[in-house]
């Protein structure tokens, strides 16, 4: 955008960071704000150009369905699975097939899975990765929990027999 070389842009960003005007998040990703940044706000930047949303235990904690605060921010995406470390947090990106991507709502500008979808994502990825014995901590399901909505996600799973 500035029509400068990558090395000149990098030097300029380091200078701005030294003056507290920007913060380096990770290689190639900078925050242009002096205020603290919600670590969940950058999940779409970590999977770009693919979409992403906060899910699994991270979404359950954000929605008050579990008490524990996860160490890593768990992300659902159609991008390749990986672990990403940044200066503001560690992220575990899980890949979902495109037909199972969705079931989130924006909260304060951050895409967070519904409780139903976060539980579905957790169980789906655990089973798909051969760890069906993984268990969630004690859940507090909200009064608005919809078994029908959860079942709707299960019906989207393609069976090799069909």
The shape is: elongated
Ends apart, CA distance between termini: 50 Å
Q: What fraction, in percent, of the residue positions are helical? A: 25-40%
Annotation, overall tally of beta strands: 8
Task: List segments where confidence is low: pLDDT < 50 over at least 5 consecutive residues.
Answer: none
Described by strand count, sense and barrel closure, the largest sheet is: 4 strands, mixed
- Tell me what portion of residues adopts beta-strand conformation: 15-25%
Provide tags for this entry.
162 residues, four-stranded mixed β-sheet, alpha+beta, elongated, single chain
List the helices and strands and how they pair.
Blueprint: H1 6-18, E1 23-26, E2 29-31, H2 43-47, E3 52-54, H3 56-62, E4 73-77, E5 82-85, E6 90-95, E7 104-107, E8 110-113, H4 115-128, H5 147-155
Parallel strand pairs: 4-6
Antiparallel strand pairs: 1-2, 3-4, 5-6, 7-8
Helix pairs in contact: 3-4, 4-5
In brief, what are we looking at here?
The protein is an alpha+beta fold and 162 residues long. It has helices at 6-18, 43-47, 56-62, 115-128, 147-155; strands at 23-26, 29-31, 52-54, 73-77, 82-85, 90-95, 104-107, 110-113.
If you had to describe this structure to a student in words, what would you say it looks like?
This protein is an alpha+beta fold and 162 residues long. It is 30% helix and 20% strand. It is built from 5 helices and 8 strands. The chain has a 4-stranded mixed sheet. Strands 1-2 form a two-stranded antiparallel ribbon. A two-stranded antiparallel ribbon has the order 7-8. A hairpin with a 2-residue loop joins strand 7 and strand 8. The longest helix is centred in the last third of the chain and has 14 residues, at 115-128.
